[in-house]
Amino acid sequence: MMRPITIKGDTTEKKFKHLEVILQRMIRRLNKVVVGIIPASPIFGYCEKPVNDSFIMRAIFPADGMITQAVVRADECSKDARIMVDIISGPDEITKSFLVSKKTKVLEVNYPVKAGDSLEAWVEDSNEKAYGFWLGFLYQVGRKDMLSMNIPIKQIEELLESKEDLSVE
Does the structure show a pLDDT above 90 at 125? Predict the structure, then answer.
């Protein structure tokens, strides 16, 4: 709730000067924009050697969202080695295939997922001595599952003026 504005001054000139100060303060507050940045969540893993079922990673998504990037690498593998990724959504199943090598590959994926979808990754490689599989994804939670906070501009200005360290450690 806004408090009433009292214009101070004995003369008309002083009242106008005070009114200008009030307007300048209001204009500064109106022009400020606060931007919140929501980073993607990393999902990552390493598997020295796939065991019996050849899976190197399993994960489940707790909220609707988007897999934006995939990163793959192997310490040792053949030239035709692939990391296969299944996204399982109820009865539907989508399989993506990523050629893997000793060089790290960052791939744009942009694949939507729903809460409860699962991810399974395994290796297809003709080289039985293949090992050291690295796999990572960036997962951006959908807007409806993001935490929302309303912070008054005045509170943000006070934090900035206090010169406190606003970083999260």
Answer: no
